């Protein structure tokens, strides 16, 4: 496998960013990490994961969909779409890489979302194998291997060097573009690093979390469960869990009058919000219980029902870390599977 020594990683970033935009996870003053556009000298974060997921690159929190110009009774529709420039996201973890597969099933199914497709086609995802998983991680429950992530290119570290493995043609093209900076590497140490990480995964608190009690066939059993009342009681409907979640994909579309025309934009929405399903005739989900149930039923029952058993969660653990009242999908799974 081709590799680069760790002390030359920034030279590699300089070379990549000279050709296209490069985004890497960097530390914020608070100690947490976020993706930023690389500038020479920026250090890559050693945090396990960013607070907000990498989905922003393909499905941004807000985006302009179209503009309208009014002239008397005439309305001119202005297509604001432009071909996206090529870009690279470096250091995506295995959970977030799998979230793109889930988002693809939503946005690339007919009718194809051209805004998302444009970014997907121009973005190269370079993943980073995990070596220090956190207590909130449970990606293995969804058959994700954090030691061998998906994405276009998978990168592995043995502490001394970074090794590059292509997962597809786009990944091979990326490696070809930096091949003059790479050298042949001995991967003997990597197997040991992977084995150590798998041992850590087995000792984590959520190592034995099972999805056996969930899936499309459990629809009526879980929908009618009396446990939703207790589970949803503490939820304050803040939507934090949906905003940090790499697989949540709901959005709202609104028009904004700039005084010089109309901008139609979309922005992330949350099924946890009281007006999420509000329509002209009223709201079919009037209680927080119904809204709370919807979020978890979607990930654990409805999504697999419509996607050959694939769950709508990747076990990234963000909702475990960020919910202000400590409610999360793991608590829901454990409560629902109890007879
Ligand atoms: S539901 Fe929670 S653990 Fe699952 S993908 Fe979303 S934020 Fe991550
Ligand atoms: S589950 Fe937690 S993070 Fe999600 S809306 Fe309720 S209170 Fe907010």
Q: What distinguishing features does this structure have?
A:
single chain, 339 residues, alpha+beta, four-stranded antiparallel β-sheet, 11 helices, binds iron/sulfur cluster
Write up what this structure looks like:
By secondary structure, the chain is of the alpha+beta class. The protein has two domains: 2-203, no CATH class; 216-337, no CATH class. It is built from eleven helices and twelve strands. It has an eight-stranded mixed beta sheet. It has a four-stranded antiparallel beta sheet with strand order 5-4-12-11, with no helix packed on it. Strand 8 and strand 9 (161-166) form a beta hairpin. The chain is globular. The model has no long low-confidence stretch (mean pLDDT 96). The structure holds iron/sulfur cluster (SF4) (2 copies).
Number of domains: 2
Intertermini distance: 49 Å
Largest sheet: 8 strands, mixed
- Counting DSSP H or I runs of 4 or more residues, the number of helices is 11
The unique ligands bound to this protein are:
iron/sulfur cluster
Written as H for each helix and E for each strand, in order along the chain, the element string is: EHEEEEEHHEEEHEHHHHEEHHH
Mean pLDDT over the full residue set: 96
| Secondary structure: number of strands | 12
Spatial order of the strands forming the largest sheet: 3-2-6-7-8-9-1-10
Q: What's the short story on this structure?
A:
With 339 residues, this protein is an alpha+beta fold. It contains eleven helices and twelve strands.
Note the topology.
Layout (H helix, E strand, L loop, with lengths): L1 E4 L3 H11 L1 E7 L5 E5 L24 E10 L2 E6 L7 E6 L1 H14 L6 H9 E6 L24 E5 L3 E6 L2 H10 L4 E2 L3 H16 L15 H5 L3 H6 L7 H5 L6 E7 L4 E7 L19 H19 L11 H5 L6 H9 L2
Parallel strand pairs: 2-6, 6-7, 7-8
Antiparallel strand pairs: 1-9, 1-10, 2-3, 4-5, 4-12, 8-9, 11-12
The structure holds iron/sulfur cluster (SF4) (2 copies).
């Amino acid at each position: 496998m081709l590799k680069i020594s760790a002390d030359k990683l920034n030279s590699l970033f300089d070379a990549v960013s000279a050709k296209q935009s490069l985004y890497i996870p960097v530390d914020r003053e608070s100690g947490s990490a976020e993706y930023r556009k690389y500038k020479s000298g920026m250090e890559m974060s050693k945090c396990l994961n960013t607070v907000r997921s990498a989905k922003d690159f393909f499905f941004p929190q807000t985006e302009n969909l179209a503009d309208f110009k009014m002239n008397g009774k005439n309305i001119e529709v202005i297509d604001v779409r432009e071909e996206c420039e090529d870009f690279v996201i470096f250091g995506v973890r295995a959970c977030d890489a799998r979230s793109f597969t889930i988002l693809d099933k939503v946005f690339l199914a007919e009718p194809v979302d051209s805004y998302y497709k444009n970014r997907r086609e121009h973005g190269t995802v370079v993943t980073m194998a995990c070596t220090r998983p956190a207590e909130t991680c449970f990606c293995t429950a969804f058959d994700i291997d954090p030691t061998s992530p998906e994405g276009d290119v998978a990168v592995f570290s043995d502490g001394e060097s970074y090794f590059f493995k292509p997962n597809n043609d786009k990944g091979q093209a990326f490696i070809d573009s930096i091949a003059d900076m790479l050298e042949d590497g001995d991967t003997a140490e990597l197997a040991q690093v992977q084995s150590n990480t798998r041992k850590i995964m087995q000792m984590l608190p959520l190592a034995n979390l099972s999805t056996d009690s969930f899936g499309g066939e459990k629809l009526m059993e879980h929908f009618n469960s009396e446990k939703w009342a207790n589970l949803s009681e503490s939820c304050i409907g803040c939507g934090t869990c949906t905003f940090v979640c790499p697989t949540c994909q709901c959005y709202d579309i609104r028009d904004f009058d700039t005084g010089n025309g109309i901008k139609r934009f979309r922005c992330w929405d949350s099924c946890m919000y009281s007006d999420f399903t509000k329509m002209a005739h009223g709201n079919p989900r009037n209680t927080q219980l119904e809204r709370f149930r919807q979020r978890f039923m979607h990930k654990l029952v409805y999504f697999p029902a419509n996607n050959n058993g694939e769950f709508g969660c990747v076990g990234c653990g963000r909702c475990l870390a960020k919910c202000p009242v400590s409610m999360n999908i793991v608590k829901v799974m454990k409560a629902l599977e109890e007879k």
